[in-house]
Amino acid sequence: MTVTGQMLIGQQATLGTHGHIHGLNAATGQVLQPAFGGAAPADLERACALAQAAFEPYRLLPLERRAAFLESIASQILELGDELIERCLLETGLPRARLEGERGRTVGQLRLFAAVVRKGGFLGVRIDPAQPGRQPLPRVDLRLRQMGLGPVAVFGASNFPLAFSVAGGDTASALAAGCPVIVKAHSAHPGTSELVAQAIARAARQQGMPEGVFSLLFDSGRDIGQGLVADSRIKAVGFTGSRSGGMALMQIAAARAEPIPVYAEMSSINPVLLLPHALEERGEQIAPAFVASLTQGAGQFCTNPGLILAVDGPALQRFERAAAEALGHVAAQTMLTPGIYRSYCQGVASLAAHARVQLLAQGPEGQGQQARGALFATSAAAFMACPELRGEIFGPASLIVRCADLTVLQQVLRSLEGQLTIAIHLGEGDQPQVRALLPLLESKAGRLLANGFGTGVEVAHAMVHGGPFPATSDSRSTSVGSLAIQRFLRPVSYQDLPESLLPAELHSANPLQVPQLLDGQGSG
Ligand code: NAP
């Protein structure tokens, strides 16, 4: 397969005529060929019309067909072979091993959702059979199952060009829920996006899917992306990116005649708590592990540890020295885009210039678009007084907040916005403190983890990659793991319908063998 610069509208490769975008070589800044034609309003209209037309036939397909489609996408992505990795490497500057791992994760996610679809538990079937003899009134027959919301718009992430982009978690979970998907390609990796879209189109053809089950649009500005969210045929949005981008799309969705949910993953600084016993017993071992997590992938992880909270004293000083030493050995790394690099440099410069912040260490200088790590420290009083210290700096920078004692540490925690993760480093002797802190920690983050760092997000059934605002726009959901399918479903209840009219999963004989909650009992 080759990169042609074409979008995909339904099964049709189409060269956009509304301006164009180019991929850039992240390492050199050089413009990559070909140009990608931007979608015109007529292209958006066609993609939405096709998605709407596909919704019903797609969601009514047997679950086995839906699962086979997801598996076929996974196979087709693998079939792209090295061409996909090579193009992605050029566009993102991410190392080959990371991209190969990410491809594995992407394929794994698709297969996981295929298994979820086959098992049928996501349908959430509940059956309350009629009780005609109940006194004083008979009970009606009620049967509930979940169904897809309708066409979903997906805005992929720049930092996961495979696992959170065109065929990434949002697309996989929406397709699994029975929803057609229209992806607005991220301008940071258009060639990668086109290749993956071609793989999806081949899978759709091979599996006989309705034409509009998937489309990919390039946008030479912001109108197409915004128009997609505004279009009445779109029923939900998945987004990963900046706070300003997520908020802009949420506002458009809320202002529609029919408002729709936007599942936006935005900003998180992922506090790391170093509790006194852990710090005393192994602070110098935690330090290099922290630096490795901070600088991994040039710090371009939504779960990057951007904030350290600890009680001030000799043990924290030893940790700071060890972390500074480790950071000095980490070479600068290429960032994803000139824009992300620029905003990282601005964030670091403004912390360095802040009167109440101390620069503890920086990594070796890099070239071009390469980010060097940066470690800062401040007092709890300054942190709580200066809101500008609490924003996310996307990249390998972190701020240590020195707290006078655990009560102050708790006040700092209380002052924080919602987070994707909070990591707690604890020794045996810290357990009573952690127990006391847990209710506060639970109210602040989607995932709490002990003696580790939030980077590295397992795609699993019990994973939550979400959290209170602004980590996400809707803390009730996750964008990673099998529970992500719930975002694109809604329950429908059927009262007293003859069984012959009901979907098979609601039949009493349970021909599909899906989990059913019968009169409140069972595995549903
Ligand atoms: P971004 O600028 O928000 O872009 C994300 C996507 O949304 C892109 O497709 C972008 O279009 C589109 N977009 C952004 N603003 C828009 C608007 N006002 N109207 C319509 N479309 C809009 O984010 P990014 O450049 O990918 O990532 C950088 C930032 O995202 C980082 O600074 C970091 O804070 C955050 N981030 C957070 C997470 C997380 O999970 N929490 C993960 C990754 C990144 P274009 O392609 O045209 O730019």
UniProtKB/TrEMBL annotation:
Q: Which Pfam families match?
A: Aldedh
Q: Ranges for the Aldehyde dehydrogenase domain?
A: 22-406
Catalytic activity, reaction form: 2,5-dioxopentanoate + NAD(+) + H2O = 2-oxoglutarate + NADH + 2 H(+); 2,5-dioxopentanoate + NADP(+) + H2O = 2-oxoglutarate + NADPH + 2 H(+)
Q: What is its EC number?
A: 1.2.1.26
Supply the enzyme class, top level.
oxidoreductase
Kindly list the GO molecular function terms attached to this UniProt entry.
2,5-dioxovalerate dehydrogenase (NADP+) activity
What keywords is this UniProt entry annotated with? Oxidoreductase
What's the family?
Answer: Belongs to the aldehyde dehydrogenase family.
What this protein is called in its record is 2,5-dioxovalerate dehydrogenase
Originating species: Pseudomonas fluorescens (strain ATCC BAA-477 / NRRL B-23932 / Pf-5)
